[in-house]
Amino acid sequence: MALQFHPTTFKFHNSPSFALPRSHQLRSHRVFMASSTFNVTSQEIGKDRKPYMPPREIQVQKMHSMPPQKLEIFKSLEAWAEQNLLVLLKPVETSWQPQDFLPDPASEGFHEQVKELRERTKEIPDDYFVVLVGDMITEEALPTYQTMLNTLDGVRDETGASLTAWAIWTRAWTAEENRHGDLLNKYLYLSGRVDMKQIEKTIQYLIGSGMDPGTENNPYLGYIYTSFQERATFISHGNTARLAKEHGDIKLAQICGTIAADEKRHETAYMKIVEKLFEIDPDGTILCLADMMRKKVSMPAHLMYDGKDDNLFEHYSTVAQRIGVYTAKDYADILEFLVQRWNVEKMTGLSGEGRRAQDFVCKLAPRIRKLEERAQGRVKQSSPLPFSWIFGRELNV
Ligand SMILES: [Fe+2]
Ligand SMILES: [Fe+2]
């Protein structure tokens, strides 16, 4: 059980809805309505759903919320971005590649190495695999995240090969991230423990659905969102590394740990951007931070669907919460960490509106944590549910 945040009230739900899309919280302005009723089969839904539409509602999305005069800020930060962001990228020649962690298909010992891999993964429980698969699918929807970054006014890659520091960062970030899904996908494939066709279908559905982060073409909101998300993935890959070690697969632990280290470096970059925005435009930045937190940071794969389970993302999140890979507590911890990192509490010289936003943001993490503790104390009801990714075997959600 976890909590859901509304602008004025908190509510508890039976699933870890800290990770739910914002569209679940909004009661109006829906442009698309697909059935999200629990246990409705894909055949039944299929009657109303066009094949290219997301599995759930998307509310009307606000666009271009950054005042046009602020475009200048990003133009003036070009040199800063070059000196502060691009230095955080690793050269390709010294970067790790998925092949560094995988059996070499050109080597004599390939079959033996695959056998060893399968031996190592044999004892890992299904709930771990469901979470790792969900993490991998999230990584595999990378085209969506590059698209999202390129919706942001003032920093988008205008040509596909733009030489602005912002565009270079976005392309190189994407190129680094591309290795994550690639490596996890191949490892999971070789393990033989998961239904690859179902996983591949989920990836195709997810990329086709996109995401709705509520960033409004606004780079302030966009970089707050990515700061939060990179830290969230750093935490979850760190936890899958820890659990892989506990289950005896050191190689998988190393893989997840290596990916987590990339996420950390990316988090540093995005946090630096927001830190700079706080320096230049404290009022504008605090208002955006409060706005993002009021809307809640939806997870990038919130529109996940496998053709079977209409609440797949919630179910995967429930398992992730249960095994401690990503929890409501982590959400509060990330917020608290960012508030400290950006020195939000001690910020002075804000407008009245800015001070109210500051107050809201500073009090939010303890509020979330308190509610989470209360939720933990309640009796949890769970029931078995089949996951297509593990050949329909059931897990408690
Ligand atoms: Fe990643
Ligand atoms: Fe990332």
Give keywords.
397 residues; mainly alpha; two-stranded antiparallel sheet; two-stranded antiparallel ribbon; 55% helix; globular; disordered N terminus; binds fe (ii) ion
How are the SSEs placed, and which strands pair?
Elements: E1 2-5, E2 10-13, H1 42-46, H2 71-76, H3 78-84, H4 110-121, H5 126-140, H6 142-149, H7 165-191, H8 196-209, H9 219-246, H10 250-280, H11 282-295, H12 312-322, H13 328-341, H14 352-377, E3 384-386, E4 394-396
Antiparallel strand pairs: 1-2, 3-4
Helix pairs in contact: 5-7, 5-8, 5-9, 5-12, 6-7, 7-10, 9-10, 9-11, 9-13, 10-11, 11-14, 13-14
One fe (ii) ion binds at residues 177, 230, 233, 263, 266.
Function: Converts stearoyl-ACP to oleoyl-ACP by introduction of a cis double bond between carbons 9 and 10 of the acyl chain.
Pfam family, one: FA_desaturase_2
GO molecular function: metal ion binding; stearoyl-[ACP] desaturase activity
Uncertain residue ranges: 1-45
Helix content: 40-55%
Largest sheet: 2 strands, antiparallel
The shape, in one word, is: globular
Structural class: mainly alpha
| Helix and strand pattern | EEHHHHHHHHHHHHHHEE
Strand content: under 5%
Subcellular location: Plastid, Chloroplast
Organism: Nepenthes gracilis (Slender pitcher plant)
Family: Belongs to the fatty acid desaturase type 2 family.
Keywords: Chloroplast, Fatty acid biosynthesis, Fatty acid metabolism, Iron, Lipid biosynthesis, Lipid metabolism, Metal-binding, Oxidoreductase, Plastid, Transit peptide
